[in-house]
Write a structure and sequence with these properties.
Strand content: 15-25%
CATH architecture of the largest domain: 2-Layer Sandwich
Protein name: H4MPT-linked C1 transfer pathway protein
GO molecular function: hydrolase activity
CATH superfamily of the largest domain: conserved archaeal protein q6m145
Shape: globular
Radius of gyration: 20 Å
Number of helices: 12
Strand order of the largest sheet: 3-2-1-4-5-6
Largest sheet: 6 strands, mixed
Pfam family, one: Hydantoinase_A
Number of strands: 14
Structural class: alpha/beta
Domain Hydantoinase A/oxoprolinase: 64-332
């Protein structure tokens, strides 16, 4: 039996195909594609199909589970509109059983239509199913390309205080910051350099992918999103973009200056995540953290260590590629349990 789990995000669409034999997981294969849903949502059908075909024939898939966060993109007037649009695309594409991850249960299409907001941004529910098998009492921190989920788990079950992104943004459980796509000036107001403090320009000149590219903390193939200026992804091009947030360029700032600036930004983003993690840790009285996602090592784990919390990595149990698409794996597992 092969179960496909999709995590359809605003910028990336992730797929995990989990193969079962005699009720046990035999194999997990993963793949993803950068798909900016805010202006290319009409490509979703082809992307879903092509992602499966990169692993196996679509006809080999026995069931498809869907989680999503793409309903928030400004292509859709409301989140409900986004959920229904994405679900319609999926239903037209697949002939096998399909269901959708909600914040409280897996939903059929009829249940989704009755309450589409139940499905909006519920992919963290799928990740919690995996993390709970690693540590029964912990906080899992999933730092992806765009956001960071900070979800408490007690007695093997997630117990997030907020259920929607709107609610979780007030509880410390959602920090809208990530490894690749975050505008640097969304969390940086000024930067110290050479004994001076420089206020930043609040333009979309550079993103966190540029910082971690310059610092060699991500691989070339990790930089999957578009650049702010439409230029390339070399370290020099990333450095040039970073220089612009100080209204400068590489004639004014050296590469050593850019690295110093990048180190400062890195530490400030760690602190940003740590503030949310501290709120959840103190409220829930949990001192163990399980990290996952693209930023698990360079951001999530560092935030936990800053707070002197015990840290485990999902990377000790899954490959880095699997950690990056953990919600898709969790979605496939939940779908398999649903059809049984």
């Amino acid at each position: 039996m092969k179960i496909a789990g999709f995590d359809i995000g605003g910028a990336n669409t992730d797929l995990a195909i989990v193969e079962y034999e005699d009720g046990e997981i035999k194999d997990i294969q993963t793949v993803f594609e950068y798909l900016p849903m805010w202006y290319q949502n009409e490509r979703l059908r082809n992307v879903l199909y092509d992602l499966i075909e990169k692993i196996c024939s679509v006809e080999e898939i026995d069931a498809v589970g869907i989680s999503m966060t793409a309903e928030l993109v400004d292509k859709f007037e409301t989140k409900a509109d986004g959920v229904l649009d994405i679900a319609t695309t999926c239903e037209k594409l697949f002939d096998c059983p399909i269901a959708y991850i909600g914040v409280d249960k897996v939903l059929s299409l009829a249940e989704l239509i009755a309450n589409p907001i139940e499905v909006a941004a519920a992919n963290w529910i799928a990740t919690s199913q995996i993390v709970a098998e690693i540590e029964k009492d912990c906080i899992f921190v999933d730092t992806g390309s765009t956001t960071t989920d900070i979800i408490p788990i007690k007695d093997g079950k997630e117990c997030a205080k907020g259920r929607t992104d709107f609610e979780r943004s007030a509880t410390g459980e959602l920090v809208y910051t990530g490894t690749l796509r975050t505008n640097l000036t969304s969390f940086i107001e000024s930067i110290p350099l050479n004994g001076e403090t420089y206020r930043v320009s609040s333009e979309l000149f550079a993103i966190t992918a540029d910082v971690y590219n310059v610092l060699d903390l991500i691989k070339d193939e990790d930089y999957v999103c578009a650049t702010c200026d439409g230029a390339g992804k070399s370290k020099e091009e990333s450095a040039r973009r970073i220089s612009r947030i100080l209204c400068a360029d590489l004639d004014i700032l050296s590469m050593d200056d850019i690295k110093e600036i990048s180190e400062y930004i890195h530490q400030e983003q760690i602190k940003q995540i740590a503030r949310g993690l501290k709120e959840v840790s103190q409220r829930e009285e949990l001192d163990k953290v399980v990290v996952t996602g693209l930023g698990k090592d360079i951001l999530s784990a560092e935030a936990a260590r800053l707070l002197n919390l015990d840290v485990k990595s999902m990377g000790d149990y899954f490959s880095d590629d699997e950690c990056t698409v953990a919600p898709a794996i969790g979605t496939a597992i939940m779908m398999k349990n649903y059809i049984e």
